[in-house]
Amino acid sequence: MRARILQHVPFEGPGRIAPWLEHAGFELVTTALYDGASVPTGTGDTDFLVIMGGPMSVQDEDAVPWLRDEKTYLRRCIDAGIPVLGVCLGAQLIAAAMGAQVYPNTHAEIGWFPVRAVANPPAAAQDAGAVLPFRFPHEVEVFHWHGDTFDLPADAVLLAESPGCRNQAFQIGRTVIGLQFHLEMTPEGVSAITGHCADEIVPGPWVQTADEMRQVSSGRFERVDAVLDQLLSYLVFTVRHPGVE
Q1: Sorting pLDDT into bands at 50, 70 and 90, what band is 124?
Q2: Beta strands 156-162 and 102-117: pairing type?
Q3: Which pLDDT tens digit goes with each residue over 167-191?
Q4: 8, 144, 146, 182: which is the annotated catalytic residue?
Q5: What pLDDT digit, counting tens, does each position of 91-113 carry?
Q6: Is 184 noted as a catalytic residue in this protein?
Q7: Which one from 12, 70, 109, 184 is the annotated catalytic residue?
Q8: Is residue 88 flagged as an active site residue?
Q9: pTM of the model as a whole
Q10: Are 146 and 105 a contacting pair, CB within 8 Å?
Q11: 212 is catalytic
Q12: What is 2-240's CATH topology?
């Protein structure tokens, strides 16, 4: 089995996702778009797709032309039934590829803030193909770094929300999940993003200082890692048991 990771900048890598997938038996292939790698065209060599974050916007196609190809490739993977996980910019790219609008949120959300599970996904979403959506914990504190938000794509189910951003996580069918936040983050990843994107740390209602973001207990990462484990297990199930809801 092969898992492909689309990476947009060197300092936003797969973090805890990579060792999890390797332990699950996947061969990892990283497409370093920031380093000139081309977006794949075919989907036959990919069993699982992960789209990472980045400081660019999905609208930046003139400055970052490979965004057009990436959206096309994402749509092909989704249409082919390949399990897809989008993180931050990755979730926004999924939304855009599926025809939803992406736009600036009222406030940036940068730092450790809780997201809450949406208790009652629409009954129609559960009836369509008997898909049971992934369930987040009632509340969990996760790492955020985003200024944009998005409308939900058609047929998507909202999974999680927060006071700072309504659409925090969504699911399409059984195989596609988009996360506005970073379950994959490690202490090294927090240090890297706070360094490379320090100019974005502007005081606001949902913005912490760099020190606040870095000085958290190991237990914080362990709780988030447990949720990531559950989510990846949920998506990988469709690789090993295709056709099973």
Answers
A1: very low
A2: antiparallel
A3: 999 999 999 999 999 999 999 999 9
A4: 182
A5: 999 999 999 999 999 999 999 99
A6: yes
A7: 184
A8: yes
A9: 0.93
A10: yes
A11: no
A12: Rossmann fold (3.40.50)
